[in-house]
Amino acid sequence: MVILPFIIGLAYKVSLVSFDRKLIIGFLITFLGNVFIFMPATTFVLFMIKCFYV
To answer: What is the total count of domains within the chain?
Structure first.
């Protein structure tokens, strides 16, 4: 579980320079929706911070 934020953070950074942003963003939204269901809210907040501020 620890490596997931790194993977999503990497995917987010790639999406910044990718022409397939809509596809990647759609993947992120779907993935984060699943994360929301399976992870506690506090962990989710830490997850988001790690994604966008690494």
So the answer is: 1
